[in-house]
Amino acid sequence: MNWVVLVGSVRKGSLNAALARALPELAPDGVKIDLLPSVADMPIYDGDIETAGFPGQVSAVGDRVKAADALVIVTPEYNYSVPGGLKNALDWLSRLKTQPLKTKPTLIMSASPSTMGGARAQYHLRQVLVAVDAHVMNVPEVMVAQAHTKITDGVLTDQGTRDFVGKQLVAFQGFVKKAQAAT
Ligand code: FNR
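Above: the input entities. Below: the structure tokens describing the complete assembly.
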């Protein structure tokens, strides 16, 4: 099974990117996880650009999401919502004729230095994913609170968090299998 990961932060020292980088080694047997290119590679959505032709980066990410068995989104919370760059990427993907997000088994996780762990961004993201008919797993949820104490030098070091994320990935593997069996 092949899953792809979209990260909502574009900064080098991102806690969320560190969480995303930990996923391949925490994945259950039989699951390969690859990171998608940065959302910063996509221009701000513009209908005129779309009319002239989809940017290569948009088409490339769309093709990879379409081909993958599942999508994982790892994002920070900005002002109680998702970062604009992530929303922009989802807006672009929603415009592709191939509809890469439609019925795609999707997993959300977030990390934040706050005690909320990015929960509010997750619920806004769920709302956006309804519009594109992505099939998002409800539970278990992973919100890595006080993430700066659990990630050291870009590595997810906190064992409790690693275990919990691993359990979510196992649950998601079951969710994806069930979705595939139903089609
Ligand atoms: C934040 N941050 C933040 N954190 C949070 O838990 N809730 C919030 O509403 C916000 N709002 C917010 C807005 C803006 C514009 C910035 C830049 C930051 C803090 C944020 O969680 C923190 O900077 C994270 O470290 C960002 O994620 P990465 O880049 O480390 O993955």
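Note for the figure: The first strand starts at residue 2 and ends at 7.
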